[in-house]
Amino acid sequence: MADTNNDLLKLIHDTKAVSIWNRKTGPVFWYVLGVPGPFYVNTEMVIGPELSAKLLEKITSIIASTSDPAARAAQLNDLILDAYKNSAMYRQVIAAMVAKAKTEFPAGSYDVVSGGERRDWLFSIPFAKEIGVRHVFLFKDHSTYCEEKLKAGEKALHVADLINNAASYFDMWFPILEKAQLDYIGTLCINIRGTNGLKRLAEHGKKTVTLNNVDIGFFQKSLASGLIDAGTLAELDTYFAAPKDWAEKYLMGDVKLFDVENLDKKSYERLQSFFTKDPWSLKHGNETFFAAMHAEIAKRLNA
C-alpha cells in the first residue's frame, strides 16, 4: 500500500466502520450511555459489512453449539482464516496492523496474541497467524484456550477491534489473563473512540497502540481527503466541543430527525430515557419540542 493512512481512512468510510448521520433527514445515533450523537463506530465492518456480519453470526453459532475448547477453537480458526485468505480487503487491514506492530511491539517482546470474544477474533486470529505466534482465545465465561500449553509469565499482546470505555478489559480480559498467569504488555487495536478507555488503560501502565483515533482530527483528515463536506465537519466540531451545544443546534426542532416509530428496541429505550431524564438540561427553552417528542413516544407506546 502506497499510503497506508489514507487507504485506511477511505476504507473506514467506504465500509461504514464509522458512520455519520444525515443531519438533514436523520435518524440520529444512540450511544450506550443513553445520549445521542452524530456518528457511530462499527469497527468490524472495516473488513466488509457483509463479511463481518456473516462471520459474527457463525462465530455465535460455533460458541453455542461446540463446548469442547479444542474443537471450538479449530472451527473458529478455520472460519476466520478461510475468510481472511479469500478477501483482499481483509488482508489489507491485517497488513496495516502487522506493519504497526513491527514498529510499536518489536518481535520478541511478546510470546502470544490474545483476543476476546467475539469481535477481537476477527483481527487477533489472522494477526497472530501473520506474526507467527500462538493465539489465545479469551472467552466471556472467563476461560482461555491455546493450541499449545501456556507457560506462567509468558507475555501477551492483546489485539482488539475497538477501545471505547475499556470496560471489557477490566471486567474480563485482564482477570482472564491474570488467571492464566500471562503478562499483559499492551494492546493493538483498529479504532479508539473517545478518551475514557485510553485514560483507564494508561493508568494501568501498559502501552496502547491504535491504527486510527476517531476524534476531530480523524474528521479533519476526512474533509481534506474529500470524504466529508465542510458542513459535516462544522457539526462534528460542535459536537466534540460540547455535545449539549450540538444537540441544541442540530436536534431541537424537528421530531422527524429521531424517526421514533422505526427505532430498534434498544435505541427507542435510550431515546425515551433521554427525553424523560433530560441529562443535558435541554428542556428549558425547548418545552414545545420536548412536548412534541413525548407525543411521539406516547404514539409508539400506544401503537
For the record, the count of structural domains works out to 2
CATH architectural label of the largest domain: 3-Layer(aba) Sandwich
Report Rg: 21 Å
Low-confidence stretches: none
CATH class of the largest domain: Alpha Beta
End-to-end separation: 53 Å
**Count of alpha/pi helices:** 12
Q: Per the principal axes of the C-alpha atoms, what is the gross shape?
A: globular
Oligomer: single chain
Structural class: alpha/beta
Number of E-type strands:
10
Give the amount of beta strand, in percent: 15-25%
Whole-number average pLDDT? 96
Along the chain, the helix and strand elements come as HEEEEHHHEHEEEHEHEHHHHH
Strands side by side in the biggest sheet: 7-6-5-8-9-10
Report the biggest beta sheet as strand number plus sense, adding barrel if it closes: 6 strands, mixed
Helix content: 40-55%
CATH topology of the largest domain: Rossmann fold
Structure description:
There is one protein chain. With 303 residues, the chain is of the alpha/beta class. The protein has two domains: 4-41 and 217-301, no CATH class; 88-214, 3-Layer(aba) Sandwich (Rossmann fold). 50% of the residues lie in helices and 16% in strands. It has twelve helices and ten strands. The protein has helices spanning 4-14, 49-65, 69-85, 88-104, 121-131, 167-179, 196-203, 216-224, 230-241, 243-250, 265-277, 287-301, and strands spanning 18-20, 29-30, 36-37, 39-41, 112-116, 134-138, 144-146, 155-163, 183-192, 207-213. The strands form three sheets. A six-stranded mixed sheet has the order 7-6-5-8-9-10, with helices on both faces. A two-stranded antiparallel ribbon has the order 1-4. The chain has a two-stranded antiparallel sheet with strand order 2-3. Helix 8 packs antiparallel against helix 9 (230-241). The longest helix has 17 residues, at 49-65. It is globular and about 65 Å long. It starts with a helix and ends with a helix. The mean pLDDT is 96.
